[in-house]
Amino acid sequence: MLKHHFTICLLGVILFCSSGQAIAATQGQTQPWNVIFMLIDDLGATDFGCTGSRFYETPNIDRLASQGMRFTQGYAACTVCSPTRAAVMTGKYPARLHITDWIKGHNRPKAKLRIPDWTMYLPLEEITIAERLHAAGYVTAHVGKWHLGDAPYYPEHQGFDLNVGGTHMGAPGSYFWPYGTGERRVPLEGGQEGEYLTDRLTDEAIRFIEAHRERPFFMYFAHYAVHTPLQAKPELVAHYEKKVAEAQARGDDLDGQQCPVYAAMIHSLDENVGRLMDCLDRLGIAERTVVFLTSDNGGLVLPACQKRPVTHNIGLRAGKGSAYEGGVRVPWIVRWPGVVAPGSVCHEPVISIDAYPTILEITGVADAEDHHSDGISIVPLLTQQKVFAKRAIYWHYPHYHPGGATPYSAVRDGDWKLIEFFEDNHVELYNLKEDPEESQDLAGRIPEKAESLRTQLHRWREEVKAQLPTPNPDYQPE
Fold it and tell me: Which helix or strand (DSSP H or E) is residue 396 part of?
């Protein structure tokens, strides 16, 4: 057993880390850790000030990062949302779950390949992180977007005591009350004219925290923001329109981030992260609450903002719905008071499937004996131990997407990333350390490395029983 001792001067914390458990002995800390896992929708890797944006204003999220650890190599489990959400809930790769596209997916009946018969819900047989924590005495809440199947598969059937706003929907009908109509309405009652969804969901989250401050709680706060439709408060839109105009006057393209409405949506998101953190401080429970913040896929770069890209993933190729880094690289921030060194930065790759085992180790809750997790606990990274199990990470997307993806699988092992495209079986090889923008395909120059990674990728697909596309007899070249 490995035991590592260290001290954080101001708090006098000693952390004992052993396999499967992490216990923080802080001054006066006698209660279990609360956990808040915030999953933002369609948020790009460079959409915060602390991750490189000069346009978006995110003082509260930047402060959160300064109080914890920011990961520069954070990844989503998929280039679209539902598979990543399933991965967070179960700790399993989307390929193993056969939940490989957003539900209910994008149909291309005349494409070269026919997509597999994939699963459009999170089966009740799967063990979720909420079910494990609930069984250990935690009160559990889901707030926001679910998008993992119809009513029989909603959060209240997956280990959550409370479900606020979670349905089959992938996006709200509107960000303003009553939040859409019919099947496209977020089911929140008692609103009023002008009420904004990001504010309302935070109201509900704060209400849950206030009601359960004396108990250990787990809250999965999955914002609908900043997914389309692009809608924001008019005064914030005006603020960012002015910023764009001023930048254009001085010849500054703001690194391609120029959509005022999207910027205003991020602004509201940031304000509400601040409100949530202020609530923890006000109730005196901030020091025993662990907060995660990440995204379900890369930022959307399609021209949906008055014919301009919604955002730009600075220094990364492409965006949501692509095989490249812009499609899967996302922010990752973890605040663990008294344990994670404030302002620390980690450059090791982490991915959505790691949330499940990490939360279990933080809380000291054992996993079910019959549950398999593809992820690994990142507690050794959070506590800056010198020992961390290096591993490859994988993606599998046997689908088509308007963001540019054709069916593919990919592997990242160390600095190397290989993408295999199924339409013609060609591969692309990149060294992400030397070429994070994936501008130089090295497959032809280093064929032995490409072949080694392709073999490794095929072995993984066989191990997880990944579904593959097949030739489409109805194929019609465009």
Answer: strand 393-397
Instruction: Give the 3-state secondary structure of residue 134.
Output: helix
The number of residues making up the chain comes to 478
The answer to whether residues 278 and 68 touch, using CB atoms and an 8 Å cutoff, is: no
CA distance 45 to 233: 24
Domains of the chain as residue ranges with CATH: 32-391 (3.40.720.10)
User: Model confidence over 61-112: pLDDT tens digits?
Assistant: 999 999 999 999 999 999 999 999 999 999 999 999 999 999 999 889 999 9
CA 29 vs CA 26, 211, 430: distances in Å: 5, 21, 46
User: What residue has token string 């539902």?
Assistant: 82
DSSP string computed for 30-97: -SPPEEEEEEESS--TT-SGGGT-SSS--HHHHHHHHTSEEETTEE-SSSSHHHHHHHHHHS--HHHH
- To the question of pTM greater than 0.90 for the whole model, the response is yes
Helix (H) or strand (E) holding 344: strand 344-346
Distance of alpha carbon 295 from the chain centroid: 3
